[in-house]
Design brief:
The chain has helices at 6-16, 49-66, 88-105, 123-154; strands spanning 35-43, 69-74, 77-83, 108-113. It is of the alpha+beta class and 155 residues long. The chain is globular, with a radius of gyration of 17 Å.
Length: 155
């Protein structure tokens, strides 16, 4: 189902898989660093694999239109590449864009930014920190949910 164009394939090999030889500044949005990878999760529209893929593609398209960013779908998430926010106003712009996309697509969106990096070649590091943070949050959510469920059944 998923058809990647050359730009998406190169971004995946570079940012997600760490092949820094694929690093190409022309694949990024205009501007200077620092850069940041942001993992975007989305829930809604059903659980079927095709539904999830369609939702993620719609979320990626919406956020790319609302923000100076480029992205790709990878491992049931969207990975956005953009300049790291330098002010609270720039951070708020990202949150507002996610809110706008949520309302338009009737879904729930989560943003997990990686560490800012100065050079585009380091974007894999930013991606890895975002992935680690997302995995930690998911583990904690499951653990907390299990404890809450356990407490409910014990009482």
């Amino acid at each position: 189902m998923e058809r990647l164009n050359d730009k998406e394939r190169r971004l995946i090999r570079w940012v997600a898989e760490g092949d820094w030889k694929q690093a190409d500044r022309s694949l990024l949005p205009d501007g200077d660093g620092p850069w940041q990878a942001v993992i975007v999760t989305a829930d809604g529209l059903g659980d079927a694999k095709r539904d999830r893929a369609l939702l993620l593609d719609a979320v990626r398209n919406a956020l790319e239109e609302l923000l100076p960013a480029t992205g790709f779908c990878y491992r049931e998430t969207v990975v956005l590449i953009q300049q790291a926010p330098r002010t609270e106003e720039e951070s708020e712009r990202r949150r507002r864009a996610a809110g706008t996309a949520e309302r338009a697509l009737a879904c729930r969106i989560g943003l997990t930014p990686g560490v800012p990096v100065l050079r585009p070649q380091q974007l894999h590091r930013s991606y890895l920190t975002a992935r680690e943070t997302l995995e930690y949050r998911e583990r904690e959510r499951r653990r907390t949910g299990e404890r809450e469920n356990g407490e409910e059944t014990e009482g």
